[in-house]
Amino acid sequence: MNAWVPPRHLVLSFAALLLLLGLTVTVAYLPLGPMNTVLALGIATVKATIVMAVFMELRKSPALTIAFAAAGFLWLSILLWLAMADVLTRG
Amino acid sequence: MRRTPELAPQFVDLDQQQDAASLGMWTFLATEVLFFGGLITLYCAYRTMHPDAFAAAARHTRIAIGAGNTAIMLTSSFLVAWAVWCLRLNQGRIAALLFWCAAALGVAFLGFKGVEYAIEYRERLVPGFNFVAGGAGAGAQQLFFAFYFVATGLHAIHVAIGVVVLIVVGWRSRARAYSTRYHAPATVAGLYWHFVDVVWVVLFALIYLPGRS
After folding, report:
1. How far apart are CA B36 and CA B169, in angstroms?
2. Is the terminal CB of chain A with fewer CB neighbours within 10 Å at N or C?
3. Does a structural domain hold residue B171?
4. Which domain holds residue B72?
5. What is the pLDDT of residues A13-33, one digit of tens each?
């Protein structure tokens, strides 16, 4: 196998990441109201997921490794949930 | 199983050693998620309280530099993933070159970040130092830029550490320290670098994109 030719799954992921970067910058300039924030964060999540699943090889990792990777995000979601439950419900 | 110098005595084989190394790195990265997560939680709370000021402040950031740096980080991350793939094919010399290119991109990222900081200093956007805000919600705009400098500063420290790690791993690859069977240090270094990339992808969305429409 020629190591100078990068494997297909890496090239496709890289191309998708650059396309998503172009997309997120483009939609940031469209007047979509609250959807701007939703799209910005949604596309960022997709990009982060591609990097973690393909580049960081979580998709081929043992379940235990995936559980460890998810643990940080689980606790972060609890932090965000409880913090925002306060901020969003202030009168 | 034949014992090799690379195999630490507590492991049955190199596969188990590799899994343990990845697990350890992910444990560290989980603490990093919460480290940056605390900052991001603050950002979400302040942005909810001051949406207009945050949009106005975000418009002061240089989206061309931000987007360019995102492309640099993504490319660098791709090169590191490719380098690890080369190590599995026993192509240490190619892997070394790829690791060093990725490190060079990391240096370029820091260079652009420096240019950006210089612009922001000249535009008087540094809170507690020379901040002069125009428009409504000047206090809340300072909160945005306080987050901006702390978050991107901490991220830049991570990039700087990553550059050194990538140079060392490239050098070890070139010296044929890794093989098809044994390359755990390189994969773990790669995990760290990809994570720095993930953090930047999130920071980019929070810092550069609001208030553009």
Report:
1. 26
2. C
3. yes
4. 16-207
5. 999 999 999 999 999 999 999
Measured distance CA(B203)–CA(B36) in Å, rounded: 10
d(C-alpha B127, C-alpha B204), whole Å = 20
Q: What is the pLDDT of residues B91-144, one digit of tens each?
A: 999 999 999 999 999 999 999 999 999 999 999 899 888 888 767 688 899 999
Name every chain B residue with its beta carbon within 8 A of the beta carbon of A87: 44-45, 48-49
Pairwise CA distance, residues B66 & B84, whole Å: 27
Rounded distance between C-alpha atoms, residue A41 and residue A31, angstroms: 16
Residue B4 lies in a domain: no
Rounded Cα distance between B5 and B2, Å, is: 10
Cα dihedral B88, B91, B92, B94 sign: negative
Tokens at B138, concatenated: 């000047």
Amino acid at A85: A
How far is residue B22's CA from residue B184's CA, in Å, rounded to a whole number?
A: 8
Domain extent listing, chain A = 1-60, 62-91
Residue bearing tokens 């590799």: B18
CATH code where residue B113 lies: 1.20.120.80
Question: CB A21 to CB B74 under 8 A?
Answer: yes
Indicate which of A5, A68, A79 best probes the interface with B, i.e. most B CBs within 10 Å of its own CB.
A68
Q: Helix or strand or coil: residue B12?
A: coil
Residues 2 to 41 of B: which have CB under 8 A from any A CB?
19, 22-23, 26-27, 29-34, 37-38, 40-41
| Structural domains counted in chain B | 1
